Each structure stands twice: as C-alpha cells, then as structure tokens.
Amino acid sequence: MAANVGGMRKASAVSPTAQAVAEEVRAWMGRKQLRGADLSRELGISQPQVSYRVRGELAWSLDELDTLAQVFGCDVADLLPARASTRAKLHRDAWGLAA
C-alpha cells in the first residue's frame, strides 16, 4: 500500500538500501554542517520532501544523489551503503588495525 505524501506517492515500506542511503546522507549533512533547508535549496525541492528522504521515508532519486554528491564534495558511491565486509575493511584501514 502506498501513501500520498506532499503530492508524491510514498511506499509504506522503504527498502533497506534506501534507508541506508538516508543514513549516509544524514552523516554527510553532519560532516558538512548542512541542514534540510540547505539541501532543499540545492535540490530545488520542498523542505518536507527533503525531510521525508533524510528520514528514509522516501528514496532519493539518482539525479538527487548526483546533486548531493556535488554539494557534499564526494562521489555518488560514497552515499551508497558499503557491503559489510567492505565497511569493516575501511574501518580497519582507517584505524590502522590488522585484518
């Protein structure tokens, strides 16, 4: 079942991938000290629409991810969830830990 949110259809259950992307976006917002209003301006969408996406209630579009990567100064791939094994390796490398 889908709900109508701000003129857009929103799936009742968002995929785990969409939720993980939202988590990455929140982390980048914190690193860059950006608010939803800042992203709203950059993306050209309403602040409520940004909020739905940041909370993981709506998935980000590929075009939006491209714009976010430019705003954050990162690659689109940095906004996508890493596989658990890759994430663990990155963590070990960052802390100089042996595998």
Q: What would your notes on this structure say?
A:
The chain has about 100 residues and is mainly alpha-helical. The chain has one domain (about 1-95): 434 Repressor (Amino-terminal Domain), CATH 1.10.260.40. Helix content is about 55%, strand content about 10%. The protein has 5 helices and 2 strands. It has helices spanning about 15-30, 35-45, 45-55, 60-70, 85-95; strands spanning about 1-5, 10. The protein has a two-stranded antiparallel ribbon. β1 (about 1-5) and β2 (about 10) form a beta hairpin. α2 (about 35-45) crosses α3. The longest helix has 17 residues, at about 15-30.
Short note summarizing the structure:
With 99 residues, the protein is mostly helical.
Q: Within the CATH hierarchy, at the fold level, what is the topology?
A: 434 Repressor (Amino-terminal Domain)
Shape-level CATH architecture: Orthogonal Bundle
Report the end-to-end length measured between terminal Cα atoms.
44 Å
Uncertain segments are: none
Classified in CATH, the superfamily is: lambda repressor-like DNA-binding domains
Broad shape: globular
Order of helices and strands: EEHHHHH
Strand composition percent = 5-15%
What's the helix and strand layout?
Blueprint (H helix, E strand, L loop, with lengths): L1 E4 L2 E4 L4 H17 L3 H8 L3 H8 L7 H11 L11 H12 L4
Antiparallel strand pairs: 1-2
Helix pairs in contact: 2-3
Keywords:
single chain, 99 residues, mainly alpha, 434 Repressor (Amino-terminal Domain), 5 helices, 57% helix, 8% strand
